[in-house]
Amino acid sequence: MLALLVLSLMPASLSPPGTGWDKGNHVLGFAVLAFLAHWARPARRPKTLLALFGYGVLIEALQSLTPDRLTEWNDLWADGVGLLMGAVFALMVQRLAVVRLS
Asked: How far is CA 54 from the centre of its chain?
């Protein structure tokens, strides 16, 4: 989460290369967070996903305070899509592991 925050707030000119598309970076970053959260907090998945979306809102609010970044509603959409994709992928991996173990 800290890495995502730093990458989101650093000047764009200093940012390392990403997916090549800003929204793709949001989707990828939040998909990874959702995937990791699936395993870290299995009993609280819906609440954790909601908290991670709130984290995306916080990042956008903080970006509005920086001179080099913009706050965009579409970034929040991308964050939400990433969270859903990460959660679905984690469920698929979990089910695949259960099938292989049986």
From this structure: 11
User: Residue 87's pLDDT is what?
Assistant: 96
Written as six digits, the tokens of 18 are: 């990403």
User: Nearest 5 degrees, angle CA 10-CA 12-CA 69?
Assistant: 75
Measured CA to CA, the distance from residue 36 to residue 89 in angstroms comes to 11
Convert the pLDDT of each residue in 87-102 to its tens digit. Answer: 999 999 999 988 877 6
DSSP labels, 18-55: -SSSHHHHHHHHHHHHHHHHHHH-GGGHHHHHHHHHHH
CA distances from 63 to 7, 40, 58, 59 (A): 11, 28, 9, 6
Mean pLDDT of 35-63: 93
